[in-house]
Design brief:
Elements: H1 3-13, E1 32-36, H2 40-52, E2 57-61, E3 66-68, H3 73-78, E4 87-89, H4 91-95, E5 100-102, E6 106-110, E7 115-118, E8 123-125, E9 128-131, E10 135-137, H5 148-153, H6 162-172, E11 179-184, H7 194-209, E12 214-219, H8 228-238, E13 243-246, E14 251-255, E15 260-263, E16 268-270, E17 273-276, E18 280-282, H9 284-288, E19 301-302, E20 307-308, E21 314-316, H10 331-349, E22 359-367, E23 373-383, E24 388-391, E25 397-398, H11 404-422
Parallel strand pairs: 1-2, 1-9, 2-5, 9-21, 11-12, 11-17, 12-13
Antiparallel strand pairs: 3-4, 6-7, 7-8, 10-18, 14-15, 15-16, 19-20, 22-23, 23-24, 23-25
């Protein structure tokens, strides 16, 4: 077997994670499970709930008509991938997997009555509710960017879709010798290595089309927070003279019209094109439901089932969760949490004990140029004494260097996780 094919198999099998071992043919008879949010967490959970609790009614509520994946979207900005490649329909979830997909927005959760209200005026009752609302951008903590007109001038492109394409267009239109600048928020945020990958791919694109341009990376964190060796080497060597990295750069105030961002010590920086990634918190519906009990931002859960510590019968998965120490907010982790949650709900519906040792795996690829990528992998196991997930010593690892072979694997991983999340018709 060729190494490439073997690695493709590993990429696919890594998505399986901690699966239930028993047959669930009769699970969930008469029960209705409502899943809110059709991202990597919500869509995966809905699909696997129907697989492991086939007698249950599984309803997925999602406002969008298609799913656009964030992984690989930096390549769209860099000009080496199309957003079409990252867009998938929800049709297979209904046609091939029996999930009822409702295109709407949940406006309220009544945990006592076990109902959710929809924007169109209807309400849906549930026996178990799974919230996968992703993150909301905390613009109220960014002076100068509180209003939508300023936000339209200074894009985040941290939710794949129209802003991804808009940032690509603005990058192409950057004046010769111009300055692209970005600001990275303090951890935690979705996809820790993502901003540094973006800086590399933007720098690579500018080297090809605008070689005198500069990329300024202002990081509120004291150092690169993920894959430090990989990105430090890329900034220092591959993009020497193009990327300037500035740590401990605390955001103070943006003047969107002037294109200037003020930092501590009254230092202001002007750029032709700003990309500010805002601080993040659990999606609005989770906070409105009173589930964001950690710093008012994140939702505390029982890691055996992802049931909320605030509302019995309500589960929260994905980026909205108050992460266990060292566990990143990533697509792969969201996919894994969804499966642990689905298995737990299937067990609860059939009065079976929950698994007392769930596992999560994480795989994360990052590109440093148009072809070469590197990975980071980890395994997390539930620690009953600490009641949290902990890294398994010696499991996982990190690439020694970026290679074109890992670039191939990164794309294979992205398509595998999309298929695992949404299924195939």
């Amino acid at each position: 077997m060729q190494r490439r094919h073997f690695l493709c198999g590993l990429a696919a099998s890594a998505l399986v994670g901690s699966l239930p071992s028993g047959a669930f043919a009769q699970n969930g008879a008469g029960a209705r499970i409502v899943v809110v949010g059709g991202g990597f967490a919500g869509a995966t959970c809905a699909r696997y709930l129907k697989r492991w609790a086939p007698a249950a009614e599984v309803v997925l509520i999602e406002a969008a008509d298609a799913f656009v994946a964030c992984p690989m979207s930096n390549r769209v900005i860099g000009g080496t991938m199309s957003l079409r490649d990252l867009t998938r329909s929800y049709a297979a979830l209904s046609a091939a997997h029996g999930v009822q997909v409702v295109r709407d927005t949940v406006t309220a959760v009544d945990a006592g009555a076990r109902r959710v209200s929809l924007a169109r005026g209807d309400s849906i009752a549930w026996d178990r509710l799974v919230l996968a609302p992703g993150v909301e951008f905390a613009y109220d903590s960014l002076p100068g960017l509180e209003h939508t007109d300023a936000q339209a001038q200074v894009l985040h492109a941290w939710a794949a879709g129209p802003q991804t394409q808009a940032l690509r267009r603005r990058l192409v239109a950057l004046p010769q010798g111009g300055v692209f600048a970005m600001h990275i928020p303090l951890m935690p945020y979705r996809c820790p290595p993502g901003p540094y990958e973006r800086a590399c791919l933007v720098a690579g694109a500018l080297q090809r089309s605008n070689p005198r341009a500069k990329v300024l990376v202002f990081d509120a964190n004291p150092d690169v927070v993920a894959k430090k060796n990989l990105f430090a080497d890329a900034f220092r060597n591959r993009y020497k003279g193009v990327i300037e990295y500035v740590p401990n750069a605390a955001y103070r105030e943006m003047d969107a019209a002037a294109g200037t961002l003020r930092f501590d010590l009254q230092v202001s920086v002007k750029a032709d094109l700003w990309n500010v990634i805002p601080p993040q918190r659990a999606g609005l519906i989770a906070r409105q439901a009173g589930l964001a009990n950690v710093e008012g931002r994140w939702c505390e859960v029982d890691f055996l089932s992802y049931e909320s510590k605030v509302a019995p019968g309500v589960h929260v998965i994905g980026d909205a969760v108050a992460s266990a120490p060292g566990v990143p907010k990533s697509a792969h982790i969201a996919n894994q949490q969804a499966k642990v949650c689905a298995a737990a709900i299937a067990a609860l519906l059939s009065d079976r004990p929950l698994s007392d040792e769930p596992l999560l795996t994480n795989t994360c690829y990052s590109f440093v140029n148009e072809k070469e990528a590197a990975h980071l992998a980890a395994v997390y196991r539930y620690d009953a004494d600490k009641r949290t997930m902990v890294a398994v010593p010696g499991a996982g690892g990190e690439s020694a260097a970026a290679t074109s072979e890992e670039g191939f694997m990164a794309v294979a991983w992205a398509f595998n996780i999309l298929n695992d999340t949404l299924g195939r018709a």
